Amino acid sequence: MPRRVSIFGATGSIGQNTIDLIARAPGDYTVVALTGATNIDRLARDARALNAQIAITAHDDLLADLRAALSGTGIEVAAGARAVEEAASRPADWVMSAIVGHAGLAPGLAALRQGATLALANKESLVCAGALMLGTARAHNARILPVDSEHSAVFQALTGEDMAAVERVIITASGGAFRDWPIEDLAAATPGQAATHPNWEMGQRITIDSASMFNKAMEVIETREFFGVDPDQIEVLVHPESMVHALVGFRDGALMAHVGPADMRHAIGYALHWPERRHIPVERLDLAAIGSLSFRPPDDTRWPALRLARDVMAMGGLAGAVFNAAKECALDGFIAGRITFPEMAQVVETVLDRIATRGGHIDATMTLDNVAQADHVARQEARAVIEKRAG
Ligand code: NDP
Ligand code: MG
């Protein structure tokens, strides 16, 4: 029986890599739902090629375009955030969660509620609502498999191991586009410069988040949520070559490292085929040719986002949702040229401080509504802070 798969965020970087793997073995899969947002041509092309049951754009006003692009194919079409969430409730065995941002949370929860295995690339889900995601998975006997490369690496290093024997988890960071820039030059950095990654090909937002280390800050929180380790057991190591993705340190002194090429198809394929390991067409590393790998500690002055991640974990509750929302707005502000690169972290810190001081939102029970409310309040606050700075 072919496996029923759905891909949320099919038109993005992770979505396209997922489709690349699925299209190599078409007989193994039945494609239920594919979703996108603005890229209607790509969504329609892939829905046709994979013979999807339904194609959905998150944008209501693009429904007519999608319908026209798929007319005569028999493929259902729909539009809007609600339709995306509904599509996640359609029975599927394996669901890729690769929408970018907070918008990925509700569809991921819907997929878990129907008992699907959720391949989780959308790190915002765990940052904003880790306990809700894990609790929903448990309640519905569903499984979450990590797709973020560092977390896939940790997951693989932990296979067959006892969590009680784990002393520390180390995730690596390339350092992004500005790793070696003089700190005083960062205020003049442009979004175009920030969106160029030394090793990974990724979407624009996560690439800029790599340069600011907000991506790594999110991943530290993701590590805590997913593996249940204490904040002080999580370390970040700058590793410019991006070949060692993570390491797990055990109480007998052993460090298990996961080494592989900077190609997301490995982590996606691992989650797709788990618990098997099947052939994946990624580059095979020639360590003799590479010669050496380097590591250094991260610098909190250059990358204040890492310090903020520690603050968020100490606050607990819905601080992750506030952090993520403020970060998304700060990133929008930087991309729009309203604030500078270093100001992104300042905006996030100010928003966290203000909302924490006011109380209420961070301590609220973790429900989807309360997470949405914390997200909303943090965005309002962030926009106000950005307006003030942009003058
Ligand atoms: P992209 O920006 O390349 O793709 C994002 C996808 O989400 C696209 O399909 C886009 O549609 C869709 N989308 C955008 N906004 C909305 C919305 N409001 N509602 C529904 N769908 C929307 O991102 P990536 O593929 O790089 O990243 C996806 C997720 O995976 C992110 O959470 C990221 O942090 C995470 N991740 C990515 C990695 C990578 O290597 N790229 C590595 C690890 C994690 P459209 O393009 O049609 O507008
Ligand atoms: Mg990652």
UniProtKB/TrEMBL annotation:
The keyword Kinase does not apply. Mn(2+) binds at D148, E150, E219. Keywords: Isomerase, Isoprene biosynthesis, Magnesium, Manganese, Metal-binding, NADP, Oxidoreductase. It comes from the Bacteria. Pfam families: DXP_redisom_C, DXP_reductoisom, DXPR_C. Residues 5-130 form the 1-deoxy-D-xylulose 5-phosphate reductoisomerase N-terminal domain. Residues 260-380 form the DXP reductoisomerase C-terminal domain. InterPro entries: DXP_reductoisomerase, DXP_reductoisomerase_C, DXP_reductoisomerase_N, DXPR_C, DXPR_C_sf, NAD(P)-bd_dom_sf. Belongs to the DXR family. PANTHER family: 1-DEOXY-D-XYLULOSE 5-PHOSPHATE REDUCTOISOMERASE, 1-DEOXY-D-XYLULOSE 5-PHOSPHATE REDUCTOISOMERASE, CHLOROPLASTIC. This is 1-deoxy-D-xylulose 5-phosphate reductoisomerase.
